[in-house]
Amino acid sequence: MIERTTERREFQLVALDCPSCGAPIAAEGEDVVYYCTACRNGYRFDPEGRRLVAVEVAFVSLPHTSVDLYKPFWLVSARVSIEERLAAGGVFSGLMGFFLGDRSDSLAPVGEGVFAIPAFPGPLDAVTELTRRYTEALPELGERLGERLLGGCYDEADAHKMAHFALIASEVDKPDTLQDLDYDIEFGEMRLLGVPFVRKGETLADAIFDIRI
Ligand SMILES: [Zn+2]
24, 70, 89, 185: which has the fewest C-beta neighbours closer than 10 Å? Predict the structure, then answer.
């Protein structure tokens, strides 16, 4: 792993041995999340403490599908609330509606759930679509252990930003409702989910919704 030091703008190599079992951990240059295939523990790099911090990891189980690789998603617990809603009568059709459920008609709706957010870069529309589809599908997905998990280079702050963006972007067909929307997201615990991808020629697509990155 390569880490930029703040004072001298040099790069410093940090040895990546698993804190639990000592096995070397595979990583790509910009990764900030890691998975030890030897003991099946996951970690994120904590830049302040300059160490690996344990993160729970699971993988989406997809029997009968030939998976080429798994890519990391952040699973972020969140509490979505609407402080004020001036445009009365609007119905949320995207993620806002998913989080608020049948409480979306009440005066100050609050809903709890889990965002599933790609921890890797991609075209914004694909990342937004993946966030929406996997967040909504998460309760139905089976989980398993194992596999390799590489390429997670988005950290907690990036995931929180993406959650805000996806929440609003999935409601863009109701711009008049959103204009006066005063909402809040309270983020909680984070863990990692390995999502199966398949190669499609030069690109990769997720194995469930066929969204190309
Ligand atoms: Zn290990």
Answer: 89
Task: Report how far ligand 1's centroid is from the alpha carbon of 185 (Å).
Answer: 34
Q: Mean pLDDT in runs of 10 for the chain (213 residues)?
A: 47 72 85 88 86 89 87 94 63 82 70 93 93 92 74 88 89 59 88 93 93 93
95 alpha carbon – ligand 1 mean position (Å): 36
Domains of the chain by residue range: 2-206
Q: How far is the CA of 104 from the centre of ligand 1 (A)?
A: 44
Q: C-alpha distances in angstroms, 108 versus 81, 176, 181, 182, 183?
A: 7, 18, 11, 10, 10
Residues 6+ away with beta carbon under 8 Å from 42: 33, 34, 35, 36, 54, 55, 56, 57, 149, 191, 192
